[in-house]
Amino acid sequence: MNMANHLDCVPSTGTVSVYKSKILKQLGFRSEALTEDADLGLRICEAGYRGIYVDRPIGYGLMPYDLEAYKHQKWRWAFGNAQSLKTLFSMFGKISFKSWFGFLLHLTAWDHLNFLPFAVIAAYVLVLLPVTPLTRQHRQLFDIASVSLFATLICKRILFWVSLRHQEKSFKRSWRAFLVHMGMTLTYSGAWLAFLFQTKLIFERTNKFILIKMPSLFKNTYRELFLGIWFLAGVVAAFSVGGSIMTKITLLTSSLILFCVYYVNWKIYPTKAYSKKLLADMEEKYKPYLVKNEVVKNKA
Question: Which residues of the chain have pLDDT under 50?
Answer without folding.
Answer: none
